[in-house]
Amino acid sequence: MRVLQVEKVLGTSKVGQIGLHVIRIAKGFGMQVVAFDTSPNKILSEVLGFKCTSLEELLSRSDIITLHVPYNKYTHHLLNRDRFNVMKKGGILINTARGSIVDTEALIEALYKKS
Q: Which run of H or of E encompasses 24?
């Protein structure tokens, strides 16, 4: 019997201390990792083997998305209706940041739309 192994893509926002730990764990599971950060670190991406990308590309490519951004006026509803429309069907969202990073009404709408 042949087992088909499918490589999952993890997308992480903000490559700070938490994001780096998540990337290391994901790589340990053989996942491909894409990351969005407003200040990308090319050396870290080469050493840990992940690709720095735009938020929209991260959302469209990732099977699992983790959020590790601080809450401020730029990240308020970072994930909104438009960005949920870009996400893959069946994608998993893990928000370890503040709740207001995600527009809850848009999330509920996206869940009904993509189910």
A: helix 17-28
In a domain, 4, yes or no: no
pLDDT bin (cut points 50, 70, 90) of residue 2 is low
Q: Which helix (H) or strand (E) holds 35?
A: strand 32-36
How far does the chain reach from its first CA to its final CA, in angstroms? 32
What pTM was computed for the model? 0.89
β-pair partners for 11: 34, 65
Q: What's the structural domain count of the chain?
A: 1
**pLDDT digits over 76-88, tens only?**
999 999 999 999 9
Domain range for residue 52?
Answer: 9-114
